[in-house]
Amino acid sequence: MYKEWEKIIQMAVRNIKRNKRRTVLSIISVGLSIMLVVVLQGLVDGLVENIIKNSIKNETGHIRITTKKYFEEINSPSSQQIVYNPESVLGYILSDVNVSMKIEFVTERIKFPVLLQYSGNNKTAVCIAGDSEKEKKLLMLDKSIIEGEYLRNKLVVKGNKKYREIIIGKKLAKMLNLKVGDTFPLMLSGIDFGVRIPSFYVRGIFETGLNMFDENVFMMNIEDAKYVLRTNGGVHEILIMIKKYKEAEKVAKYINSLLLKKDEYKNLVASDWKTTGGFVKMMYQALKIYNFLYIAITFLGSFIITNIILMTILERKREIGILKSMGFKKVQILMLFTFEGMVLGTVGSICGALLGILISIPLSIYGIDFSSSMSNMNFPMDNIVRWSINLASILSSVLLGILVSSIVSVLPSRYASKMKTVDALKSV
Amino acid sequence: MEGQLVLKGVRKVYTKGNIFIEALRNINLEIAKGEFIAIMGPSGSGKTTLLNIIGCLDIPTEGEIVYNGEQLTNLKEDTLAEYRKNNIGFIFQSYNLLPVLTVKENIELPLVIDKTISKRERETRVMELIEKVGLKGMENRYPNELSSGQEQRVAVARALVKKPLLVLADEPTANLDSQTALEIIQIMKQMNEIENTTFIFSTHDPQIEKFAKRIIILKDGMINSDTKISQ
Ligand SMILES: Nc1ncnc2c1ncn2[C@@H]1O[C@H](COP(=O)(O)OP(=O)(O)O)[C@@H](O)[C@H]1O
Ligand SMILES: [Mg+2]
What we know:
The structure holds two protein chains of two kinds. By secondary structure, chain A is an alpha+beta fold. Chain A contains 15 helices and 15 strands. In chain A, strands 1, 2, 3, 4, 5, 6, 7, 10, 11, 12 and 13 form an eleven-stranded mixed beta sheet that branches. In chain A, helix 2 packs antiparallel against helix 14 and helix 12 packs antiparallel against helix 14. By secondary structure, chain B is α/β, with parallel strands linked by helices. Chain B has one domain: Rossmann fold, CATH 3.40.50.300. In chain B, the strands form two sheets. A six-stranded mixed beta sheet of chain B has the order 6-7-8-3-9-10, sandwiched between helices. In chain B, helix 5 runs parallel beside helix 6. The longest helix of chain B has 18 residues. Chains A and B meet through helix 1, helix 11 and helix 15 of A and helix 2 and helix 3 of B. Magnesium ion binds next to helix 1 of chain B.
């Protein structure tokens, strides 16, 4: 039977309605803290999603096949770790329907560091070589060209010489004083350890808004890279994009089981975006810390409820005495007041969450430009960060608000439930 | 004996810092079912303390209380709450209604925590009592919309609604004018006669005293006299 609980809730609600000023005060306090949590969470979720998105398209793909030793060097993947004949590796794993039905597309990349010299300084940049067509869906540098053109996958004839084309980040171009149409030499050491100095033609300049890219990266066609590095058709990475990115871990595991079956592929490994994305791993760590912050904010905002419930209890001592004399048990008294805090917390949390959503909507559409504060950071984060409105996150902050306000209400309510009946009755 | 309440050697000492106040000393009482008892005595003689102890709101320092052959002295708080819920109705000098509940809701409150009573039964009992105490048409009013006499009628109805075996009333008429006081005591008397409910009430009022079938006079925490009145 729960009619007594119905009554207890009803009484709690009526008492809340009776004390309008206190009610408004606690709803504002809890509401503001939950609003803050929702907005903060929207920013953090937006950042994380942004970093994951960038990290997937620029770095890891959903799944990346490399040699096992590729990641062993701490700072940068080793150029000497080549996946030879990527076509046959792909042919092999794609012949399994369990893999092929999940896959959207695959592509290959060669990534190598280049030591650049400009006006007496040294700088290390990264060359990413990929399939210029398929990279329109990954690196998407075609959309960021601000001068010249995107890669055409053609040799350029200038004078009597032929050049291979590159596109280059805006800040890097400025540093090296390069313009569209310029040619410049690059010193490269090939897989055969031979050093060559081919010249390249600047086909275009891109600006992604991602400092990590605009300052450090240029891109060339993968076939050109295979040639200048003498990889014999080998690549550093095979990137696999699947239809449902959440299945990446599972699919990677399956691909690994396939690779293990063939002796010639035993040195290869498939890793999903979570396990090798350095920034992604870092973000997941940061998220845990943020959870503590959300809880702390919620406690701060809910603390007022403890005081308000205590005030209510002191005012209603006689009432407590009456209920006890009638035979109300300790839990029932406890719940009478805890419910009040809970209802205040619930209303406050819902109002706060709605307000938080209202604030987050324009922020999710227009975002905020963090470029000035991020200008010197090598972070795979777009300059403009858009808030993520994530229903699960919002719901969890509402639940957090309700939970925390119930917890902070229990303390004073326990005091009420333990009060001696005669003492409660005596108070005026 | 069925419904008999026995107090044996009850003593109550209050401690206030270093001061000990002996509010009750060696009280021995036997109260049979259906009695209508007035407890009288000057202010500070221990009337409230005695009623609180009989009602298990407070525990005696020494002595025991036996109800229906059952020891109540060493029971846990929630067990005592259960006992009060099932057996005792309280009426206080200041009516102590819950301000957020209507007349009807105040009266039915003791039944809400009683799982043995159906909703329909609850409804009929409450309406019956509202009629009996003369509050018909005021069911949906809140306490602050009532006169003090009406408030005490609600309190009486609330104490009677679960048909308790024992009703304890601590100066129930002290805040009422003599006409209203008379009406209240008549309602109590009526319930005593119809339902055979035991009533124990403390009072200063000689007009009320006349209705009692037994008068216990306390003095300095002791029973000064205990007189049965044959009517
Ligand atoms: N909680 C308490 N603490 C200390 N002394 C008390 C307390 N309650 C009552 N007393 C004292 O006990 C005595 C009896 O009080 P009470 O039972 O209230 O008498 P009455 O109801 O007849 O006026 C008085 O001296 C009173 O001051
Ligand atoms: Mg008294």
